[in-house]
Amino acid sequence: AMALCLKQVFNKDKTFRPRKKFEPGTQRFELYKKAQASLKSGLDLKAVVQLPPGESINDWIAVHVVDFFNRINLIYGTMSEFCTERSCPIMSGGLRYEYRWQDDCKYKKPTKLSAPQYMCMLMDWIEMLINNEDIFPTRIGVPFPKQFQQVCTKILTRLFRVFVHVYIHHFDSIINMGAEAHVNTCYKHFYYFIREFSLIDHRELEPLVRM
Fold this sequence. Notes:
This is MOB3C kinase. The chain has 211 residues and is an all-alpha fold.
């Protein structure tokens, strides 16, 4: 079923575009391969997220932010047909939580958007940031900016909201597609990572606290 889901995503130009990749031969590509190998080996996810000895924390965070972005973008893409202007006129996480969009460009103040609009703005905004060499440098020896971890916190906080919306409003679709195990593993991996490096304010986690 998951293969079918992924096929649907790749057929939908509007929900999936190729994202930033790690260049083979670079330190970050090696780090990405190391992270993926640990993940596939079935190690405890709490252990998988820990910084490998001798590695730079910013490199480790950069690799994970890009990877989580790609994977969460795919997850949302698989169920975007169930998340419409009609079904989700507000970007929310149940009755208690509503997320408004602000990007300091087009939307200078927090603005109510439908869930599909919010997701589209979010994916474009993250794509712009991770492809910005001043924020996510790819050349060896080019340092990360001072505000790098703050930017990553903002990206990860907003990506967490995708999980909130998908779990609370579209969990039946996840189950019907047979994607529950895949989504749960991605969520757990993401959760352990943000907790390991204290990258999200604990108040943001409240909508899914019972999980």
